[in-house]
Amino acid sequence: MMMTKHNDYYRTLQVHHDAGQDVIDAAYRCLCKMYHPDLNQNPSAAEKMKFINIAYGILGDEKKRRIYHIEWLKNQVVKPASTPTPTPSPAKHTVRDEKLDTDLAAKVLDEFFRDTVNESWESAYQKLTSVDQNNIPREDFLEWKKAVSQMYRLGNYKITFFRKYQNCDYAGVIYPVIYQFSVALTEMQIVTGRISEEVTQKYVAFNGDGCRVCLGYLDLKPTIKKFKYLAQALPKMDKDEIFMKAVAKIDPLTGVLSLSGFKEQAEREMLRSCRYGNPLTMAVVTVKPSQSQDDTLEEYQLDACISYISEILCGNIRKTDMIGRCDDSSFGILFTETKQEDAEEALNKLLELCQKDDFLSFQLCTAIANLNIGDVELSLKEAMERVVPREKVKEETSPLEAEEKAAKLGKYKLSDILGFNKRGKNHF
């Protein structure tokens, strides 16, 4: 991925480079409200919105953001705190010497992380710079490591050399060389069993005699208190219970949110809408399969239609919108930052796509829900009771076009879709 001064995506979305995903999503929604061509008639708004969409396409995807962030770091200009007095080098280093020095620094950092994995914290402390050992007492370091180990367990890590700084100031001391490394970490939260990955930056200082790891803390006591509090405050939940709760939020047939998952997300969006005064619209789509002529497939007809429609809806709604399965035959769609008239227009376009092919026979009924703050289930129930059938728009086609369409029709046959569901491969 090439980086230029024109594609700082963090700057484009106006977020910090350490911002969480919820902050990035909220920033994107806010910028959409400001620059979307439907809301902003300024000629430059469309071009601005184009760059916003590109930025969110990268930062809104966890894997793409991880790759982009490494490249972004490489393009940051590091300004030293002060201009150090240059000191003559006793001898010119060859490329081979520099490679050996870098490998030595990487080896020390690897040993530091290996000590952390093995909980050899005494050994890890000895690998810190003299500055860190002066600032952080050994007892505080050991207590900090113990407090962190009650919350998190370090798994795999990968160290990649990033950059070298010469005559660099670290905590008031000028080191001849400081090496910067990018470290990809995999860690597990012990209480919940959740596995997460992140990329962090670590520094190793060369003081003329050897390499030492830069810890980067002046006082560990506040951090120790925080981790001790978290260890006591988090509920001791059973891992099987956590897994079952997570599974319950996803509909097994379609892969979209289940009713409980949709309620949770929708209630959160309702509160945000009330807080900031942003428009929010919720719609219901009910699927009514036509009677099948083949009695052997009749019991599977609804599942086949639901699977097909969910695939189309999920593939065409905006990233910021949400879809969930409300009951056996209905979907709820939450249009964020969208007024009712705009939501109705977007819904019609989605339903046109659903009814474009007719190899599955069904009727779609829709309604716009009246939002009851704090009671999403009631809003959905009321809307499902007053859904009205949507008439399919018939396209006039010549006999030749109809024959051509029939030949191409059926991305999947009904039997294919049923097979996908049976094998558990119907992912949108």
Automatic annotation (TrEMBL):
GO terms for cellular component: cytoplasm. It comes from the Bacteria. Pfam families: DnaJ, GGDEF. The keyword tRNA processing does not apply. GO terms for molecular function: unfolded protein binding. Keywords: DNA replication. One of its GO terms (biological process) is DNA replication. SMART domains: DnaJ, GGDEF. Residues 8-72 form the J domain. InterPro entries: DnaJ_domain (IPR001623), GGDEF_dom (IPR000160), J_dom_sf (IPR036869), Nucleotide_cyclase (IPR029787), Rev_trsase/Diguanyl_cyclase (IPR043128). PROSITE patterns: DNAJ_2. This is DnaJ domain-containing protein.
